[in-house]
């Protein structure tokens, strides 16, 4: 099997066949951040952490361009990459891009950083070697995300019938992943005590 080159392409334009990199990057960095705001509770030294939302993943890569052997300028090569940070006249924004490399690496996102560093020039000032650092922030259409949402997730109100041994804190831990949120459920059901609940009781589980 021959060498597979990574490509950068316009994800919204089926006619864009993509720009193959001159040399495959030596490494890729993918970062995933999760937002946990702190909840201060009187009397506790360490604030509680409550999951609020996921944040966009990012992909970073350094692309190496070199034409020192041929002596040709890199201007055209650089211009092909620069179009992915240029404002599209129809979108009024830069296009959504897809970085793909073989079968295992496909990342779709918007370009949030595009840094060019030039290393070697000829006697006429033509660029012969460059490094381009790109940073993509993951992009996914809202309709695609909504289709994945579980209708019984804690982001949507629901009801639940209690079982033997149920308490508000145990239910909060199961429904929200955080027992400290038991008061949300208790309050929604006209209660304010972290007590043992009678089995067979229908509770309202509010959305976060």
From TrEMBL:
Highest taxon, organism lineage: Bacteria
InterPro entries linked: CIS_tube_prot_N (IPR045361)
Residues covered by the Contractile injection system tube protein N-terminal domain: 11-144
Name this polypeptide is given: Peptidoglycan-binding protein
Organism: Paracoccus sediminis
Highest classification ranks of the organism: Bacteria, Pseudomonadati, Pseudomonadota, Alphaproteobacteria, Rhodobacterales
């Amino acid at each position: 099997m021959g060498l597979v080159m990574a490509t950068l392409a316009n994800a919204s334009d089926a006619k864009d066949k993509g720009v193959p990199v001159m040399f495959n990057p030596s490494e890729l960095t993918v970062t995933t951040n999760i937002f946990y705001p702190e909840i201060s509770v009187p009397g506790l030294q360490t604030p509680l952490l409550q999951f609020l939302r996921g944040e966009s993943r990012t992909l970073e890569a350094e692309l190496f361009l070199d034409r020192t052997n041929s002596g040709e300028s890199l201007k055209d090569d650089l211009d092909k990459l620069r179009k992915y940070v240029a404002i599209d006249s129809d979108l009024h924004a830069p296009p959504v891009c897809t970085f793909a490399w073989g079968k295992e690496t496909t990342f779709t996102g918007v370009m949030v950083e595009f840094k060019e560093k030039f290393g070697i020039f000829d006697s006429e000032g033509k660029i012969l070697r460059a490094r381009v650092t790109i940073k993509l922030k993951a992009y996914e259409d809202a309709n695609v995300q909504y289709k994945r949402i579980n209708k019984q997730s804690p982001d949507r109100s629901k009801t639940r019938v209690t079982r033997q041994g149920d308490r508000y804190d145990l239910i909060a831990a199961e429904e929200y992943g955080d027992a400290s949120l038991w008061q949300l459920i208790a309050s929604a059901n006209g209660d304010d005590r972290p007590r043992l609940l009678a089995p067979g009781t229908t509770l309202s589980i509010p959305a976060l």
